[in-house]
Design goal:
Helix content is about 65%, strand content about 0%. The protein is built from 22 helices and no strands. α18 packs parallel to α20.
Amino acid sequence: MTDSNCESTTVTSKSSNFVINENEFISLDFALEVLELGDFEEKWAISKVLVKYGEAVIPFLKKIILDENADVESRWYGLKILSQIRHPEIILILTELLTTTQEEDLIVIATQTLASQGKNSITFLCQLLNNPDYRLLATKALAQIPSLDVIEPLLSLVNDEDSIIRTTAIVSLGNFDTPEIKTVMINALKDYSSSVRKEALIALGLKLKSTQDKELINLIIPLLEDLNLSVATQAAIALSRCENSLAIEALNKVLHLPHTPEPLKVIIVKALAWIATPKSIQYLGKSLYNLNVSVTLEIIDILGRITKPRLKSQVVAILTSFYYTQSPKLGHPEILQALCYSLKQLRSIESVPILEDITENQNPQVRFYAQSALQYLRELSS
């Protein structure tokens, strides 16, 4: 290695442990030591030196970058150096890092570096897909590249035997929007792997934000009764993104099925509130009377958070009617407390008589909630 290939850089650091002189040859060993042990300024300066070693530095940087116990800053600078070198092995290093690290800063720069390798990285990773030992790693790496060029290789993986590979491909394809991908997502709703079904629902649910596709809604509805709770939950969330009556009716039906798990019922309650139409709110109002106390509590809480002006009067009418029917559930202090708080949030001046009545309750905590709501509403009207 000649001096001309390894020009040194001058750095001044108050906490400097290393002397890096402008015209002095810097050995690779010394440069790597600075990268590992130096302070911020020293690492920044020495990274310029290490780049000039080219391919020779790759094995040493690999060791630092993939060491989960190494200093994150040193690993970050190692990645920064690799981003300026083009070599197939770099793609493997980045691929392995992306599948092992949880450090957000490293993930960001590794993804950027992988993308900066250009089409060569995609071509190389596609070749690795044919190698069983690297197929999963290559899939995860392709999924990190924000390029239309990854669509075709990822589409080839959606029927892979490995559910992790299928899931990874579905997650990444969800970032793109083509008719072919939509078809793949719809087919994935029938996958035997719950993780694949869930990720397909996430992708299709996002499409419901901009469409009232009845065919798609009808395909999602059956998954409300999926045996896997996370899939059923995601189906409810997906349907909450549209205001279609099909979605509202399906959500209300599953909400009242005896075998529906309570956590799913809570999500469905939230979904109906997120849809926020007179019909979805009406169903929530009716549900106050025929669901258990904990779900009823969720309904009262979420009704108090309705913000659409056109729905507020409907919500207030629902809550006041619930109080005047003297439901047995009003015997639970937490129900009365939630009712007071929701009426307060809704700024319901017309509910003052109800709150005055509740201030006579024997439970001191209930009285406190009623008095707090009363004081707030009286201040609003004064």
